[in-house]
Write a structure and sequence with these properties.
Elements (H helix, E strand, L loop, with lengths): L5 E2 L4 H6 L2 H11 L19 H10 L2 E2 L2 E2 L3 E5 L6 H15 L5 E6 L2 H16 L2 H4 L3 E2 L3 E4 L4 E7 L12 E5 L8 H9 L8 E6 L13 H13 L8 E5 L11 H7 L9 H10 L2 H7 L32 E6 L6 E8 L8 E10 L13 H14 L3 E6 L5 H10 L3 E3 L4 H17 L2 E3 L3 H8 L2 E5 L3 E5 L10 H15 L12
Parallel strand pairs: 4-10, 4-11, 5-8, 5-9, 9-10, 12-15, 14-17, 15-16
Antiparallel strand pairs: 1-11, 2-3, 6-7, 7-8, 12-13, 13-14, 18-19
Helix pairs in contact: 2-3, 2-4, 4-5, 12-13, 14-16
Amino acid sequence: MWPPQWLTPIPQNKLDSGRGEDVIDFAETFGIITKDSVAGPAGQPLVLREWQKDLIRHLFAGDENGYRNSISLVGQPRKNGKSALGSVMALYALHASGGGGEVYSVAATKEQARIVFADAKRMIEANPDLVGITKLYRDAIELPQTGSVYRVRSAEAYSAEGLSPNFTIFDELHAQPNRELFDVMSLAMGSRGRNSTLIAITTAGRRADQTGNDSIAYELYNYGKKIANKEIEDDSFFMAWWEAPPEADHRLPTTWAAANPGYDDIVSAEDFASAVKRTPEAEFKIKRTNQWVNTKNAWLPTGAWEELEESFELLPTDEYVLGFDGSWKNDSTALVAVIMPRDGDETFRTFKVAAWEKDFTLNDDSWIVDKKVVAKTVMDFFDVNNNCREMVCDPTYWEDEMFQWSEYGIPVVEYKNTVNRTAPATAKLYEGIMSGKLKHNGDAALARHLDNCILKIDSQRGARITKDFRNPKLKIDLAIALMMAYDRATSRLEEVIVPQVFV
């Protein structure tokens, strides 16, 4: 199936003058099926499908000066032949890179990195024309006549010392615990200029990494969509991404066919029918329909928040409620606005005003939010946008600032996060999202904090959003600020608010 759901454009002349046809010829001459599969028995020649040829042409686009794509991202569900394709491309790069070439198979773990590498090794062992000119080691393949080498690397050892790759296959990028290895490999490519490229082949996964920030794979996925939608231009980046539509029923064969270019060919339809009965929905969507998901206990269904995005601005005539969830040390502080419905409109709109969040990649346990900066940010925002109906705050650690804001003229209301209060507020926010009554402007940090929310159920008092305490790096403070602001904006729509005085 070509094209995929998301495809960044490449000029035809770059496709025609690139190395794609050479790679295709190499693959069909030296490629071997290394494992029995629907595609054929082990030992048989690799036969590329037309969509695979189209993909190769795009990945290897360029001209006499080198690769067109510095970074490429390919997203496919499992069992569509990613490993075989990655292996044969790496072998081509090894033989075509000239003297002193460096080719790498890279992944989060060495075991994962060895999957593509092992396929390449088996292809060499099965081909007399290749085995005679190569030296095979546990984690390296060498071409003695050119000095080129193909190695395995992982996130367990990401030193950039002495690295100068001309070709990198990054397997299952979604599994990277953080962006360090990706950044190292990208930076190391610089010495080769346009004679170097990195191709990441992955399924979807969880949106946040172990630091609580967007994963590098999810970040690149969104970047690629912006290029495909012509929101930005970047000729050095390419993405081909297959996925099911967000609203698609994951149990239907039409959904499977939409997401899998090799469906009922490389991928068995019967295998899907069996897997959907025994695989949890979130896992099935990641591995079989290539959709990004939240945690297994995620509060919001996949895609629900994304569907509410629209472009808007806070107008001078808009009335709004500010939600403030403050912290002190090693946490995040969040300020969110909810705009009241405009005349002739029943829609609430929300956006992040500001957020102060510890960067966990720095391993700094002394981080403390600057209260003076926060206080001034609130007052500066109020000065420019003076139609604030109220500012709702969790008072913990911030009583003095709340008094300061009330003295400044901001109508401040205390909002203690007790279960009796947050359970109905959680239900109200969920209803607002699922009914489409609440829109947002696509802020990535707000989306991430909502992604991090899990649902805690109390049989007596109801369900409420909370953080995953097993991973304190996954913050939800922007979501809490939104919940408070939306609760007040909806329930107090007709009320006249009397500011509280804090002493």
